[in-house]
Amino acid sequence: MSSLQERIEALKTQALASLPKLSDESALNDFRVSILGKKGQLTEILKGMKDLSNEERPIIGALANDFRDKITDLIEEKKQELESSKLNAELAHETLDVTLPGNMHHKGTRHILTQTEEEIEEIFLGMGYEIVDGYEVETDHYNFERMNLPKDHPARDMQDTFYITEDTLLRTHTSPMQARSMDAHDFSKGGLRMIAPGRVYRRDTDDATHSHQFHQIEGLVVDKNITMADLKGTLDLVMKKMFGQDRKLRWRPSYFPFTEPSVEVDISCFKCGGAGCNVCKHTGWIEILGAGMVHPNVLEMSGLDSKVYSGFAFGMGQERIAMLRYGINDIRGFYQGDLRFLKQFA
Ligand code: DAH
């Protein structure tokens, strides 16, 4: 019998005898390394393989492989045995009271204004609009001049604001994004459809319905052959999505310097359906936004020929929409960060 064969057999006997006596994982690991490791006993024995004859080599090889497979399996088995007896020991001396209160995980929620904005964005994205971001610090040029409100125009008074310099101010509305988007758009590639949500500022006294800062969403579509029918169809669809399929829209003539004609749009009250209630102040209608056909001056100032191009625009207040939908009666709730308010919209 080859001496290698004897050594393997001896190693096997010795290994099988000591394995059951191992009592923890680190001893088991040492055991594994002492046999199968780089300097382990089996590895040492196999170094002698190169001196074997061609007839012996496969026989000893098979024997060694057999042993390696067997001992590897046994070590794995032993490992699991040790793990489960360790767990059983822990379970035996620890007690677990499943009736104790658990740890509360406080789940945050997006702000109701963010939710409102995203919902509106979703509707417009579905109609192929792009969403553009504007500047809260804006120039007099874009905020007023380009919106057809030249210096000393009386309508500027309604939007008195915070000036940083003579020509820089906190924007009073999102409308300057109309001019900025038209400037940036390549009309040779087709029309422009965008909405611009964002924060705006006015020098207002804060009370239940006014805030010196609030949020609007501007909308603008400019292309060839855009008519008031497009404006009506668009807003009809959007308002129905937001306030219910049986809403009716009412259009009243109005005035904005940057649109001609200008309208104010009311929706039939979603609470009483038009009969009159506290939400619609007993009129059956709720004023929801301002809109109109883009004034030719506004188009021309962006370098568009107002005989070729036309467009519609609208602007709505995010707080107003959220207040109506959720029956919020004080605008200050949006800004105070009071969890009792915010959590209602989780
Ligand atoms: N910029 C107006 C405001 O802040 C709202 C507005 C009205 C925007 C009519 C529009 C529009 O685009 O067509 O009061």
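^ 3,4-dihydroxyphenylalanine complex. The mean pLDDT is 93. The two ends are 80 Å apart (CA to CA).
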